[in-house]
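dude i think i finally got it to work??
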Amino acid sequence: MRKVFTTVLMAVTVSALALSGCAKKEDTKPGSSAAPAASTSAAPSNNSGKDFKIGMVTDIGGVNDKSFNQSAWEGLKALEKQTGAKVKNLESKSDADYTPNLNQFVKDNYNLTWGIGFLMGDALKTVATQNPNAKLAIIDNVVEAPNVESVTFSEQEGSYLVGVVAGLTTKTNKIGFVGGVEIPVIKRFEAGFVAGVKAVNPAAKVTINYTGAFDKPDAGKAAAATIYNDGADIIFPAAGSTGNGVFNEAKDRTKSGKKVWVIGVDKDQSLEFGDEVTLTSMLKRVDEAVARVSKDVIDNKFQGGKVVVLGLKDNGVGLPETSKKNVSADILKKVDEYKAKIISGEIKVPEKP
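look at this
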């Protein structure tokens, strides 16, 4: 059974304040390409969760992957500030660590244990089955168990929009996609991206390169070098910390006078890698989802056995406001047109290549 999460967690994140001290709300009206901006501060703690413990197990990308693991952790840290709940993460160095790490939180009587990433599915299912009284949740996979809440995203929809940006921005008609492991969630990124490019620029060629890893920046850098050497001027990585290598390659080329772009993923990666190489990013609001489900546990509203699906209509995916720095107003207007068509159902974005 699916339940679509349609509201942003307002209790956990608050709007950023301008330096003048006046609040300014980001434009998230229907049709706007921008997803809600990440908050820069959290509300003062109300201590509603002071007796709660929430744990998070990362996949092999680690908590500082500058991607979805980090976004999930930022969501928990915001929740900690807002509610006083104790939060902790355990990093997995290999898939052999998944089950022991999950069991550690269950053994320590944590009120909720998160598994972050598709690859955690089997381990989380095992732990949930062996511990029916424990509450668990997972990002990017569906685990069918009465004590697990699963959160997935329509990555293909947001990826379609950045594909539109790439297709209308490229000067060489050569574009790249660098994936991590070939799993359904990454295939959704690929399928949506290619569809978006082709919708606005049928003549463009999109080169696909899977590195087979989410934790190998050097592999990402090598893949990017090959694609850029073939004439591509834009690459979209969906590969966890492996994608950081794509940014590193782009920065090296930019320093030598060659103009190339990278499209960030999961977070607004211009904040990490700079506007000089970041064309835009495909935001995936993992932080909001993790905070929302965790807050439900504190409020005794946890819904085990449910699947939450976040897409464009939920502002679960989208482009950041910083896109305005490098993407022209005309292209962003076109992005908004395609977003409206996806939300209305006029365009059905493919989930598989």
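Residues 169 and 327 are 8 Å apart (CA to CA).
im so relieved honestly
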